[in-house]
Every structure is written in C-alpha cells, then in structure tokens.
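Sharing a chain and its predicted structure for anyone who wants a worked example. Both blocks are below, sequence first, tokens second.
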Amino acid sequence: MYIIKTTNLGFSYPQKENALKNISLSILEGEFVIVFGGTGCGKTTLLKLLKPENTPIGKISGEIEFKGDSIGKLNKIDSACGIGFVMQNPEMQIVTDTVKHELAFGLENIGVKPVEIRRRIAETANFFGISDWYNKRTTELSGGQKQILNLASILVMQPKLLILDEPTSHLDPVAAHEFIMLLKRLNNELGISIIISEHRLEELFPIADRAIAMEGGRVLFCCKPREVNRQLRNISGNHPMLSALPSATRIYNGLSAEIEMDSPLTIREGIKFISDNYKNEILELDSEDSNLDGMGTAVELKNVYFKYNKNSDDILSGISLQVFKSEIFTILGGNGVGKTTTLNIISGKNKPYSGKVMIDGKNIKSYKNKELYHNNIAFLPQDPQVVFLKTTVKADFYLACKMMNYSDEESEKLIVKIAKSLNIMEVLDYHPYDLSGGEQQKAAIAKLLLLKPKIILFDEPTKAIDSYSKIKLGEIFQQLKRNGITIIIVSHDVEFSAINSDRCAMLFNGEIVSIDTPKSFFSNNSFYTTGASRISRNKYRNAVTCGDVIRLCEINGLKSKNDQT
C-alpha cells in the first residue's frame, strides 16, 4: 500500500512557471526515500506540496493522495498528526521557550489529554536521549540538539509519514551522523515512511530504499540507490549530479575505465575496491607548498576572550590565530563552539572584553566610521536572507553597485559576469525570498562579490548548495585568492574544506586547538574527515580528496590477477 501518490503533479509560482512538471510517484508505506538534485530543481517545492499546511502560493495541477485519499480532503488534525515536516533551519521550527514546552506544544493544540501528553513526552524524550536537557531553554541548545528537538516534537504526534527538507544542512559532521542514524532507527523500528531531500548522500544512500533524481522540475528517474550511478552515466558521462554521489562511487567512476564491476556505495565497499584492485607501492603524493610565507598578515586574533553577557560563560576563551593575505582559511568544529562568534569578532560586530583583533596590521579599534567595511571586510552570515533589501535580486545587486559608485555600464557588466559565474542569471528578476535555499545562498555571495572586498568572511557558504554548485563556488574562491583576496570560512563541509582550503583549524572549548594543511588536518582526524580519507587511510597516506585517491591508484597501477586472488 502506498502512503503518498502523485499523478501528473505540476506547480507554478507566480514568478516561475513549471517549477514542477508532470510528476507521478508512489511512495510505499515504510519506505525510506531520498530526493536529490541540483539547487532549484524543485525538491523543496515537491516536499512542501506533500504537507498541506506548507503549500506555497501558486497554481497546482494533478493529484496528490495520502493513504488512498486526496490530500486536499485531510482535516487539519489528521494532517498535523499524520504528516510530519522538518525544515532546513533548526531555528525556524522552534516556537516555545523550553524543551518541555516544545514537546507538548503540538499535542496541546490538538486537545490531547494531559495524562496522555505526559506519557508520550516521557516515551519520546527517552527514545531521543533528551532527558538530560529536558528542562533547558531552547536558546541554550546546540544546532544538533535543536534539530533533534524538532524531530522529537513531530514524532510525539505519532505521524505515519515524515518529510525532511535538507535537515542536516546546519549540522556539523558528528551531529549530522547522529541525526541520520536516528532517522534509520525511526524507519526500522517504528516503520515510519521517510521522504528526505539532501545534498549529503554519503550516509543516506546505504540506508535508503529508493532515490529520486530531479532536474528542471521533473523526475529523471526513481530507483534503488545502487542503480543511481548507472542511470546518471547513461544520461551523460559527466552529468553534474555524479559529483553528489558517495565518495566510494566517485572514486570508482574516476578509475572505472580500468575495471568492470558494480560501483561501490559505502565506505567499506570503497576500501575493498581499492584494496582488491590497486597496488600500494607509492604511499603518498608529493606535498604541495602552500606558499604563504612572506604574504603578510590579513587577520590576527591575539588571546581573545568573549562572552555575550557578564554572567554567562566565555564563548571564546583565549583564542589566537593568524590568517595570511590571499589565504583560504577554514574554521571547523561542532555546533555551538564559537565559530560564528569568531567571525563576528573579526567583522567588528562583536567586541571582545580582552585580547586584540588586528585587521591588515591595524587594531580594529582604529577603524573609524565605515572604514572597516569599505573595500575592506565583507561578511556573509548563515542566513542569506538578511543581505537582501529589495524586491528583486537584480535590484539588490544594483544597490550594491550604487554603494560602490560604479557607473551604469560597469554595474551591468559586473552583475552579468558574477551572475553567470554562479549560474543565477535566470533568477535575477525574482524576489530573493522566492528562491530556493541554495539559490538564495548563491545570490547573497554574488552581492558580496560586487563590493570587491579585500577580506571576505563566509559562515557556512555551501549550506543548501548542490555538489556541482560547490565545485563552481570553489573555483570562484580560488580566483578570488589569485586576485589577492583573503577568505575566512566557517564550515561543516569537510569535503569542500579539504579541496579548497590552504589551512584548516579546529575550534574547541573556545580556542583553536589545531591548525594545519588539509592533507595533514583531515588525514589525522577520525570524525571530522572526508569519505576519501576513510576509504584510503589504511592503504595510502594523506589522501583526503577523491582526486587524491584516484591519482594514487593510477600511479600505483592495477594489481595482477595473481595479486588480486
């Protein structure tokens, strides 16, 4: 029996026709289904239409059924209880001040008796491991805890279908893993049907029953995850979505001209593929010098302490770091450790109560008026919506150009150049709030680039961006670096960090505990590391990207048949 069925489903926004085109799908009861595709392909629109309360403004065609009945006929209580929805941003879904109130909120609103509410909350809190922070205020929770709370507050309603729209995009690698394992338990132990859109497929593919690939508002195919690679390669040998597949599959694709076999999917299968087929006489690639010596210092923090009020604990407790000019420097760490606060300190938004902040060799206190921000520092926060002030993306871009006193001709050329480089030409006339999360992120980055700063601070720049767009963004970062711009990134995206950073730092307990090149940094980590590093570390040294592993395998060559046996 299917739990959700769509027949010739179409949808048009007022500003965008055919956001979805003739989608016919059936999701069975108890299935775990992934929806993936490029930014703006229609994933979020499709998921919103499956939850009546989230239906966007626009024109719908076709049919949607839930458990055999038209979804439009569901009453509000059946919809609230039967279909749960978890959003991208943990902050956006929390509505009360404490954890216990959040868990009770939905049940109270549908009139569940107090004794039943207490029983359901106790059971759910124990299942999700919430008991230790049950009495906390929601503002005290980490990002991972907030997303678990969102999930728990939905599960306490006992839904039959759980829909999640990129739920790990704000989470660090450890928290994301824990969240995905919770979804696996809910599916296996409770039989809840799950439909999830994600760009992180490394851990989801092995546990999903089916994967739905979307492009241009259409469903390209729906099949088992193990078949996705073959389907994409049949469409095109260099299809952009191939870059979204798990590390083991991408390594296989880079080497598969030499070997005919089913593509590996998991880390374990990737390890076996490399071990069974390739020699390991050459253990590592030649190291590449970062060439940062003598570049001069762009940003320096000296023994900085910061707290949000005098009675709270220190968020930063003696943090010190030095970022060189024309460097891409990435700060990693768990949710709530102070990464965003560090960027706020560098940007001048927050002021430390002790320590020094030096920008281009000058104490930040010495910058007057808006001197710090004119052709100097630009900051893109986690929520890209905050940078938009106008009713269209293009109008926002022209506002940035006006601030920089560009001529009309120069403004037009710059806008077109940057919009093309980020593949957002088609959304220039849209309202920024009508864009998908990934499109908003790219548009916000474009506005920032129009300001031509010397130092750019990025807080989670790859959040909600598909893998192909990350490649293009990385190319833009590298070009900015070549143009002499310093980039400081806070990120949970270990893959992007490993490929694009000159150095990476780990922030823990309010201070920087390690700084190193990506090869040394990620090859020595067990949890904050890449899939490629996990696959190759028992055979090669310091291989932290899929490209590293592919090159080492090619250099070493295939094992002979005798060696393989």
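Comments welcome. The chain is about 35% helix and 20% strand.
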